[in-house]
Specification:
mainly alpha; 2 domains; Four Helix Bundle (Hemerythrin (Met), subunit A); 0% strand; Helix Hairpins; 12 helices; 304 residues; single chain
């Protein structure tokens, strides 16, 4: 098996499996199970007693999972030119390296290698180890539902960024106004604009913890107006995502219907062609039989 054939076979295995390719399906199932076990292990490891009693088992499983995920990452990077055949090889490698799912794969395995790279800050290592939970996003390759979420976020990203930008402006404006209204009367609750941002976040998201509240009449009015605006701010991304999901679901149904109709047309065409061949064979066979005597097998005289 030469280099090109080997890389093509590896690519067909590590990409999302088709029903007819058992090796690819088995690979997908193996990665899914390993991801789920890795996430469960990370959560279970957070219990002090479990970490103390089973630390060597956690570490052993981590080595196994990291080895598999690293190999998977390198293989996907190696087969990137087949994933993006319209690009030069180096651009295909770069495009895959910078893709969202590839970055998730890299960040998920990176904490294991940091100590070998000379990173000795224990606090940083603990924080980075939490990134192992990002492995759950690897399931995006194998779940149509997660793919749908990713597609919606990708297509509606501009609208969502606009709503976030609008929310940030409202946060700054409302916190600034509340600071100037309440600071002189309640300096402990609203000591500066940055601290007042906490009140703005709680109010705009309509959470209302009540740990910081205005005490002046003007402050209460501003608080009510901000809370009412917050209802609309929260509803904006919700409506955008809902519309995106509906469009994507309808698009998928339309594509599936078109694919089904195309398959049916192809089958019908093949059936018609096959029937035509059979009719032609029957016609030729019948004409041949007319040229020969069915009793003696001799050739019959031609009729003018």
């Amino acid at each position: 098996m030469n280099y090109s054939i080997l890389r093509m076979r590896v690519y067909t295995i590590i990409e999302r499996g088709e029903k007819y390719d058992k090796k690819s399906l088995y690979f997908d199932y193996f990665i899914i199970v390993l991801v789920l076990l890795s996430v469960i292990s990370t959560i279970w490891e957070s219990y002090p007693e479990a970490n103390q009693n089973y630390q060597k088992y956690f570490y052993g499983f981590e080595i196994i999972s990291i080895t598999v995920f690293t190999l998977e990452y390198l293989l996907r990077l190696w087969t990137a030119p087949l994933k993006y055949p319209y690009l030069p090889a180096w651009k295909a490698y770069l495009k895959y390296f910078l893709s969202f799912i590839a970055l998730v794969d890299l960040i998920a395995i990176l904490p294991f290698y940091l100590p070998f790279l000379g990173v000795g800050d224990l606090r940083l290592l603990r924080m980075m180890r939490l990134l192992r939970l990002l492995r759950v996003f690897k399931l995006n390759r194998y779940s149509r539902a997660l793919n749908l979420v990713y597609d919606v976020l990708k297509e509606r990203g501009e609208e969502l960024v606009t709503t976030v930008f609008f929310a940030l402006i409202l946060l700054l404006v409302s916190s600034t106004l509340m600071y100037y209204v309440e600071h002189d009367i309640n300096p402990q609750g609203f000591p500066n604009i940055i601290a007042t941002l906490w009140w703005a976040v709680v109010t705009l998201t309509t959470v209302g913890y009540g740990d910081v509240v205005p005490i002046t009449m003007l402050g209460k009015i501003l608080n009510g107006i901000t809370a009412l605006i917050g209802i609309g701010v929260v509803a904006l991304p919700t409506s955008i995502l809902s519309a995106g999901f509906l469009e994507k679901v309808q698009e998928r149904k339309r594509i599936e219907k078109e694919e089904t109709e195309q398959i049916e047309r192809q089958l019908l065409q093949e059936l018609k062609e096959r029937n035509g061949e059979i009719e032609e064979e029957n016609k030729n066979s019948h004409s041949t039989h007319l040229c020969y005597c069915p009793h003696c097998g001799g050739k019959l005289p031609e009729i003018d």
